[in-house]
Every structure is written in structure tokens, then in C-alpha cells.
Amino acid sequence: MNEIEPRQRDAGRAIKAPQNFAGGLALAGVAGLALWLLSDLNAGSLSEMGSALLPRALAIGVGSLGLIIAGVALVRHGSAIEKTELRGTVFVLLSIGFFAATISSWRIGPVNVPGLGLMVSAPFAIIIAGFATPEARLRELLALAFGLTPVCMLMFGDLLNLPIPILPAFLIDSLPEGWSQKLVLRVTAAVMLCISAGLFATERHLSNSTVDGKQD
Questions:
Q1: CA dist 60 → 28, 35, 39, 67 (Å)
Q2: Which pLDDT band holds residue 1 (cuts at 50, 70, 90)?
């Protein structure tokens, strides 16, 4: 009876799954905005990748997935749009804004903001976004941030050689003569991965100790 009632209630509606439909359109809208913002950048080719190739491919994939989700929502029954807490939206938007404002240098009038690069901006953005849930724990977020950031650094800055600011501007300016940015990137990524592994091991040990204490 509980499964039949929603279908009978939604029988006269064109949109069978409003929540999925809205989510699909939101994904398609974000993808369209990304493609528009990337229109002035060179995509290059698979042999010589430009700065816009990977983001453009990702935007096309996300947009296509969003349209598929919205299309399926017209024929398959699903959940209605429910009220959500504002906390998650606020922290995610703060994370995106912080990352966009700090990854590269910019100037507004007399104010000059130095770029922090992916090495500094990404961990803070991950931690800020992690607090979107009230169940967030700082130690776990630190382990995640120090684990994901070096992977992105090595992928975009070392393997793909994309023109993305990786190191902070102040660090680049203070590098001793003869030190390459690639070497600093690799050493920094290795150190961050070690920190992440240490934090993960510590968190797991503390969790096991807590469980053992409760059992005793």
C-alpha cells in the first residue's frame, strides 16, 4: 500500500521524480557555465593537452549525466524535493570561494593578494567543505586533505604539466638557485602523503582503542 500511494499521487504529474529532475538540471547548468568560462582557453589535443582539455571533458561528462538524470526523472518515480539544512550549502560554497580566491595571485586596486597555489589552497578547501556535515572530525579531514592534495599536485603539475599554480608564490620566489619547481613539488607531495598516512594510522588506532574500551 505504501509503495502504490506515491505512484497514484504522482500519476498526473509530468515530473515523476522532482528531486532528481532538479538535481539533473543543476548539474547541467553548472556544466554549461563551466563550458562558457572555458571558451577562451585552449583545449589542445591528446598529444599536447591544453589547460582547458580536462576541465572541458569533465564539464561535458557532468552535463550529459545531468541531462540523463533529468530525463529519467520524467518517466521514473522518485522522491519529492525536501527541505535541506543550510549548513551544507554554506560550507561548500565557502570552500569553492576560498579555493578560487587563493589559488592564484590577483589584485583589486591597491590590494594585492599573493597566490597560495594548489599546495595550500586545496587542503584548506577540503577541510572547509568537510565541515558541511555536523559529523565532521578535524583529524579525519586533515588526513583526507593531506592525502588528496599531493595526488592532485602530482597529476596536474607533474604528469599532465597543466598551467595550474601548484606552489605558493612566496615559495617560488624564495627557492635557492638550482632548485627546480618539479623537485620541490615531488618532495612536498611525498611529505604530505606521509603526514596523511600518519594521521590515518593515528585515527584508526584511537578508534580501535575506543571500541576496545567500550567492550571492556
A1: 9, 8, 13, 11
A2: very low
Give the pLDDT band (50/70/90) at residue 186.
very high
Query: Is there a single domain that holds both residue 129 and residue 72?
Result: no
Q: What is the share, in percent, of the chain residues with pLDDT greater than 90? A: 35
**What are the residues whose beta carbons fall under 8 Å from the beta carbon of 214, sequence distance 6 or more?**
none
Q: Kindly provide the residue ranges of all beta strands, DSSP E only, lying in the chain, ordered along the sequence.
A: 106-108, 111-113
End-to-end Cα distance, the chain: 46
Residue 37 lies in a domain: yes
- Quote the domain boundaries for residue 62: 15-44+52-84
Same domain, 66 and 31: yes
